[in-house]
Each structure stands twice: as structure tokens, then as C-alpha cells.
Amino acid sequence: MPVLLAALGVFAVSLDSAINIALPAMAGAFGVGPATIRWIIICYVLTYALTAFAAGILADRLGPAPVFTAGLWLSCAAFAAYAAASSFGAVLALRVAQGIGGGLVYGTAPALVTLSLPRDRHGRGLGLMSLGLGAGLAVGPVLGGILVDGLGWLAVFVARAPVMGALGLLALLAPGAARGGGLVSRIVASRDLLRPSVLKAAALAFLSNHAQFAVWLLVPFFLVRALGLSPTAGGFLFMLTPLGTAMAAPASGWAADRFGTRWPLVIGLLVEVGGLWTIGGLTAESPLPLVAAGLALVGLGVGIFQVPNLTEMMAAFPPAQQGAAGGLAFLSRTVGSAVGVQVTAMIFESRLAPDGFITAFHTAFVAAAAACGAAALLALTPAAWYKSGR
């Protein structure tokens, strides 16, 4: 039950991908451009990045389930409050509140999995959790497109309140779901975080997410403005990235348990590079199958990469610090995402005025592919080097 609950929780939180296809509509409603609307992403992502690590440390004291459940209820309240939001500033404030709730869920879900399974099944359990995360990311853009077309951008937020409320009830009522820790906790010290095995896993997560968030920020604008697709049609096409992630996650978890983590990491990152490079060459005249292939490749690469990366991070910490390990994993991912959004927006804006949308789009994706390529080189580091610091 804890593994299923973790998968459902991250599924519900990752439905936030629905807002990406709504970004053009939100930009129009508030009279801002892509460089300003990025704060919708940054306020949420940066908040849950910081919250996830704190939530993991708290989970090592209280047990992951109570902290996880609190995150579901806080998310429910934040989504309901969007109904009263009347300004861009109010939306940003609610994105911070939503980020706290999401961080409590994301930061404790991996520990729910690893503390309920034997060590040799961690990859498969984390793969199932990642399937839930990827499925939410995949469903989100389609759901968002339908809601934007039918009810407007605000519905993308408010409609998720009952989903979170239902999961909050399930977490409270499920047998054994609200137990405390039961393990002797030790405060995470700087020496725990500065070991080579931990630093490598964190750096890889940072670089991969830094790169892929070029897709989340800019591709919705490419689909709606350059290709002229409706939000619904754009949402169906955009879902190929997270769908690829969801489809790859279970097999990647099995491979990590069976063969180790190094080569799945490298292969996943190289596939992600291929997808980013493909997207970086698209124009308004590109055929839709080529657009679809680029988006699918990025998602497939991320899915192959993420589970072995998370497995490495969790294995670098003892059972009594699994909460901190899971929180650090999501901290690394989300700081990478937040920095990626900022860097991508800066690169895009620097080329937009003098060269136009397509050239700025190309430049941003070449930079993203370079960051992911650097991660692939790091992943090739011999295992003996970083395991010596465990």
C-alpha cells in the first residue's frame, strides 16, 4: 500500500504539468510575455525544491506518511483558494503555497517506497512511483488543454482540489498509511551531503532537469504560436514528453536492480540529448511527426535516466535517512528545473528581439542539449571513483 500511495501522490502533484499548456492563455490574461510568465513556474518549482529536502528530514523524525499526508491536504487548500485569485501577484503567492504542499509529497514519497521494500527491489518500487509521476505529467497537458479551451486557465488549478482531497482521505484511512518512523534518526550533516556518490547523483539530476525544462517553458509557445495549434491539440502533442518518461520508468527501475545504474544513466542522458537537439532544429514548417519524435525522445531519455539516478541517491543513505535522501533527490531535480527555466528564458530573450522567435528557440535548445551532454560525460565517471566516498 505505501508504494501505491506514493505513486498516486506524485501522480496528483505532477498533474501541475497542466499549467504549461495554459501559460500562453495566462500570459494573455495578465498582459505579460514568456520572460515574466516564467515566474509561474519558478515560484512553484523553487518552493517545492526547498520544501522537499526539509520534508525529508522531518520524515526521518516523524515517519514519511504523516508528512506526505499533510502535503496532500495543503495542496487541496491551495487549489481551492485559486478560485478567489484576482491578480498575477495573488496567483504567484498561491503558487508558493502550492509548492510547499507539493514539496511535502515529493520529498517523502521515495522514503515511503524504500522503507516498505527490500533493498533488491528498490529500483522496481521507485520505478512504479516514477510511473505515477510520469503519468501525471503526461495527463496534465491534455487535461490542461481541455480545461483552458472549455473553462479558462483558472480551471487548471481549481479542478485539482477534489483530487487532492480524495487522496488526503485515502492516506488517512489506508491501513498503516499514517505510521511514524520507528527508526533511530540521525541528523543529516554536511559530511553526508558532500560524499562523492551523493554529489554525483545530485549533479546529474540537476543537469538533466535543467535541460529538459527548456521543453516545459518554450515548447507550449512553439506549439500554439509557431505551429498554430489549439491548446487542446497542443496538449495532446506536448504529452509525448512525460508519456515517454512514464513508459520508460518501470523498465528502467528493473534494469537498475538487475544490471546496476551506470549504463541506464548514460543511455538515458544521451537519448535526452538527441531529443533536445531534434527540437532545437524545428521550424514553423516542420512536420508534426518530427515534432512528436523530438518530444518523445526527451521524455524517453528522462524516464530511462531518472529511476537509476534516484536509486543511486537513496542507496547512498542508510534506512534512518531515507527521508533526507528522497528530499535531496527532489531538491536537486527542482533546483535544476528552476535554474533551467531562468537560463533558458535569459538565452531566449537575448535572441528574441534581434533574431525572432525561431532563432531564439533554436539557441535555447542548443544550450539545453549542451547541459545534458555534460551530464552524460559525468555519468561515465568510473564507479570506483565515486563509490570510494560512500
Provide a concise account of the structure shown.
The protein has 17 helices and no strands.
Topology, number of strands = 0
**Basic shape:** globular
- Write down the Rg: 20 Å
| Secondary-structure class | mainly alpha
Low-confidence stretches: 177-181
Main beta-sheet strand count, sense and barrel state? none
Strand percentage: under 5%
Number of helices, where a helix is a run of at least 4 consecutive DSSP H or I residues? 17
User: Which bin fits the share of residues in helices?
Assistant: over 70%
* Quaternary state of the chains: single chain
Distance between the termini: 31 Å
User: How are helices and strands ordered from N to C?
Assistant: HHHHHHHHHHHHHHHHH
Whole-number average pLDDT? 85
Keywords:
single chain; mainly alpha; 82% helix; globular
Describe what this molecule looks like in 3D.
By secondary structure, this protein is mainly alpha-helical. The model is unreliable at 177-181 (pLDDT under 50). 61% of the residues are buried. It contains 17 helices and no strands. It is globular and about 55 Å long. Helix content is 82%, strand content 0%.
